[in-house]
């Protein structure tokens, strides 16, 4: 299965817990997954097979809720190229 890019932004809502530690829970799930990823100021972008990335995204959402978020807003962006790989490097290397 070709690699895609999946950007995920989880916006936790809580009346008692600051949002940054909750977002850190999601990033920890992504980091522990072993997929290539990059944290940006607005979202975390992952690279890998679509099914795997969607499963990781679901685990990240569950981790934020388990950490005490009252609710979450989740935004996805995906780049899929049938029959071909999509990489973060191809998009960012000209700018580094």
UniProtKB/TrEMBL annotation:
SUPFAM superfamilies linked: MTH1187/YkoF-like
Domain (Thiamine-binding protein) ranges: 8-93
Organism domain of life: Bacteria
InterPro entries: MTH1187/YkoF-like (IPR029756), Thiamine_BP (IPR002767), UPF0045_domain (IPR051614)
Similarity remark: Belongs to the UPF0045 family.
Name under which the protein is recorded: Thiamine-binding protein
Organism from which the protein derives: Cyclobacterium plantarum
């Amino acid at each position: 299965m070709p690699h895609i890019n999946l950007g995920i932004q989880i916006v936790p809502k809580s009346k008692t817990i600051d949002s940054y530690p909750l977002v850190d829970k999601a990033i920890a799930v992504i980091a522990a997954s072993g997929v290539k990823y990059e944290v940006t100021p607005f979202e975390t972008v992952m690279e890998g097979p679509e099914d795997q990335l969607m499963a990781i995204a679901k685990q990240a959402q569950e981790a934020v809720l388990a950490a005490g978020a009252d609710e979450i807003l989740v935004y996805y962006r995906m780049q899929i190229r049938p029959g071909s790989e999509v990489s973060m490097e191809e998009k960012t290397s000209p700018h580094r």
